[in-house]
Amino acid sequence: MKILQVDDLKTYFRSRQGPVRAVDGVSFEIENNKVFGLVGESGSGKTLTALSIVRLIPEGGYFAGGRILFNEKDLLTAEDKDLRKLRGSKISIVFQDPSSSLNPVFTVGYQIAEAILAHQDISHPAAAELALEFLRRVHIADPKRIFHDYPHQLSGGTKQRISIAMALVNSPELVILDEPTTALDVTIQAQILDLLTEIIEKEKLSMLFISHDFGIVARMCDEVGVMYKGKIVERGPTRQVLNSPKEPYTISLLESVKALA
Ligand SMILES: Nc1ncnc2c1ncn2[C@@H]1O[C@H](COP(=O)(O)OP(=O)(O)O)[C@@H](O)[C@H]1O
Ligand SMILES: [Mg+2]
Predict the structure, then answer these.
(1) Which residues line ligand 1 (CB under 6 A)?
(2) pLDDT per position as a tens digit, 226-258
(3) Ligand nearest to the CA of 225
(4) Taking the CB of residue 252, how many other CB atoms lie within 10 A of it?
(5) Which domains does the chain show, CATH number per domain?
(6) Which phi and psi (to 5°) does residue 252 adopt?
């Protein structure tokens, strides 16, 4: 069973020179409980592909074609209210910069509890208890103290753990992670990747994992799509793409990774 099917997605931007084809005919599928990776250099259209799935594309952007089926329902033609219900519950996103998903004026515990209350019919004390439970689940040291902290009091790694907790609280079926470790120091990156690996093993989740780093994608993903200039130029099981890349762009991307290693 597949949870997500993207068919010939086209997300363009208006400009005086004519449409900017940011996502230009992208197709891929995510199987239930699998991790699909999108890898490619900066500007290749990875983030816009992710934002298109939840219909949060920036001003000036528009859908020029395609379908996005989530559990067989087309998200591009779904009603706004249905999409609002899906976002943060059945589909959640973790962004590169954890500050963008956390509100500076509320405590961590309050925001997680609010995220729960937005989608679940439970009492405030029960939501607070669940929020605390999720802080433990993402291995926050001293969760009772962090619960009452404001985001600016926390390190980047802790904030990203909290963003991940927020993305999990409503038992999503699909989690989209857009460069979840790119903004972090290398040692913290490794810890967050360990956490994500643990979550993938423990939870019944499907994931779209986006990174410009082939090494990370190779570690995290069952299948991978290589993006270049708004298109997926090569796609397949991660091992197959790694071991016998077919497209010149994939080969050059892999060579640059090897040169760094
Ligand atoms: N707000 C915007 N307005 C106009 N063009 C944009 C905007 N955001 C992105 N783009 C275009 O879309 C392309 C893909 O962007 P993006 O999806 O963010 O790439 P990636 O995540 O792979 O780095 C960019 O190269 C740019 O041309
Ligand atoms: Mg991006």
Answers:
(1) 13, 20, 22, 40, 42-48, 58, 60
(2) 999 999 999 999 999 999 999 999 999 898 877
(3) 1
(4) 11
(5) 2-90+173-260 (3.40.50.300), 98-169 (no CATH)
(6) -70, -35
Mean pLDDT of 110-124: 97
Model confidence over 130-160: pLDDT tens digits? 999 999 999 999 999 999 999 999 999 999 9
Alpha carbon distance 36, 198 (integer Å):
16
Ligand 1: distance of its center to the CA of 150 in Å?
31
User: Sheet harboring 231-237: ordered strands across?
Assistant: 91-94, 174-178, 206-211, 35-39, 223-228, 231-237
Instruction: Name the closest-CA residue to atom 24, ligand 1.
Output: 43
Instruction: Please give the number of the atom of ligand 1 that sits closest to the Cα of 51.
Output: 17
Residues with C-beta atoms within 5 A of ion ligand 2: 46-47
Cβ neighbours of 192 (radius 10 Å): 22
**Which of 223, 225, 217, 205 has the alpha carbon at shortest distance from 257?**
217
Which atom of ligand 1 is found nearest the CA of 50? 17
Cα–ligand 2 centroid distance for 43 (angstroms): 7
Ligand 1 atom nearest to 44, measured from its CA: 22
Copy the structure tokens of residue 245.
């890349």
Question: What's the CA gap between 45 and 39, in Å, rounded?
Answer: 10
Phi-psi region of 80 (alpha: psi -120 to 50; beta: other; left: phi over 0): alpha
